[in-house]
Structure formats: C-alpha cells, structure tokens
Amino acid sequence: MQTLLYTSIILTLINVYLIIYICTLHLYPKAWADKTNSNPRSLNPRVNNQACVGITVTLTALLMCFSWGSYFYYLIF
C-alpha cells in the first residue's frame, strides 16, 4: 500500500514537471525550437520535441490517474 502511494506521488511529480516544461517551451529561442521540431513525422525527441513531450504527458497522466485510483480503491475497500 505504501509502495503504491510513493509510486503515485512520483508519477504526479513527473507529470507536473512535464506540464511546467510544456508551459515554458515558448521561452526558448526560435532557432532551438525550429531545430528540435524539424521533422514532425519522427518520434525522435531531437527532431520532434513537442510531439514526444505531448505523448509522454498523456501517458504519465494516464498512469498517474490509474495509480491514484488504485490507491484510493484499496484504501477505501
């Protein structure tokens, strides 16, 4: 039970970090943004950074919600 709580907390912190990173993407120089988003069809983070971060946020949010739901389910029942 305690391991599930720690896992949920870690996933939440990772998700918050990624959301803050997404919110600060517009602060990076334009040349860097053009370089890291030069190939929109690739899944390589060096040439398609924004899409890879979006996929990562979606997956971590899914895992985070599932882990918190499981934790509270086992806590209540």
What does it look like?
The chain is mostly helical. The protein has one domain (2-76). Helix content is 74%, strand content 0%. The chain contains three helices and no strands. The protein has helices at residues 2-23, 30-36, 49-76. Helix 1 packs antiparallel against helix 3. The two termini are 12 Å apart.
- The SS-based structural class is mainly alpha
Number of helices: 3
Rg over alpha carbons = 16 Å
Shape: elongated
Largest pleated sheet: none
What is the number of strand segments? Answer: 0
Question: What share of the residues does DSSP label as strand, in percent?
Answer: under 5%
Total number of distinct structural domains: 1
Cα distance spanning the termini: 12 Å
Index terms:
77 residues; mainly alpha; 74% helix
Task: Produce the secondary structure layout.
Layout: H1 2-23, H2 30-36, H3 49-76
Provide a brief overview of the structure:
With 77 residues, this protein is an all-alpha fold. 74% of the residues lie in helices and 0% in strands. It has one domain (2-76).
